[in-house]
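Notes taken during the Thursday session

The instructor put the following on the board and asked us to keep it in front of us for the whole hour. The protein is Pyridoxal phosphate-dependent aminotransferase family protein. We were told not to look anything up and to reason only from what is written here. First, the residues (386 in total):
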Amino acid sequence: MNKFPARLLTLIENRKKEGAFRALSSVNGAIDFSSNDYLGFARSEELFSKTFQLLLKYDIGQNGATGSRLLTGNHSLFEELEKRLATFHNSEAALVYNSGYDANIGFFGCVPQRGDFVFYDELIHASIRDGLQLSNAKSYKFSHNSLVALKDKIGKTVSQIGKQSNTEIYIVTESIFSMDGDAPDLKELTAYCKSEGYHLIVDEAHAVGVFGKNGEGRIQELGLQKDVFARVVTFGKSLGVHGAAILGGAGLREFLINFSRTFIYTTSLPPHNVITVLSAYDYLSSNGVNRRKQLLENIVFFKSVIEKQKLSNYFIASNSAIQSCVLPSNDTVKIVSNKLKDDGFDVKSILSPTVPEGKERLRFCLHSFNSKEEIGLVLQLLSKYI
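Then, after some discussion, the predicted structure tokens were revealed:
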């Protein structure tokens, strides 16, 4: 076997010294305050059964997709799913990707062109940052959820570099941020982008299923879908299955099919995976309202217990299913996480460099299936340990 490169070994050893070394662990059966399965769809036996019935209905006996969608993998179920997505999310068109990561890499790697500017929230997801690294456009971060900072950054950038007549400006944010659980003022941001002719892109990964009358996400909840250039929705969180889609105009869909490398050069999702997404959207329509109601009640209850236990100063303000308790230092959050694990609770520690140094945290993910007793006890134990 070839000797492992010394420079790579040094990087691993440095991670260990910093207390930031990552390792895989198996699911332990503890009480779940960690997964993205906000509505319990991923573990729903009823959804599993309905999906199986759909497989029989469509006579799906094919294991794999056999190729990319531009070759042999564009089975007819994609058209049905993309029509369903466009209708449900009130969008002109939709294009399915293999994952949210693929969608963001594929979008930002090809849509912003040389000479364009992209301004992104400083806490934007890693997949968007990685996509921007593949882009020929210049990209700049602005202070988290600050429209004032965004306007200032755009003004200074345009005055320093100059803006050509064909320069496009793209603004990127998330409707619910994955690590802080907070949200931008989307009405204000959308109005600003519309007034200036900028293109707004919103990642809705942690909002779909949780927000909106039928779980459509925050953009539709606020009635902003016609003024947003593109939305990214994912199926691996509230919907409990796998995959993602980009929502936007028909022109955007055509462009992505022709230029998005993560769409063009990968084997497509197999037919049975697409069936699971169709089934999950059916299930969201029939069961989502009650589960979403229970989840929102749990969020309110969780926040009331935080206040009762005098923990408010530790938590980032959030009205979403993501509630983050900041405990600076990797060692501290790992110790508290392990103590909760010993008590039978799965609460993950989020370490730097995933979050900035000094912002290490316990990330509580709430679900429709968490009981009030579980919420009360885990926060009682947290108060004891910190």
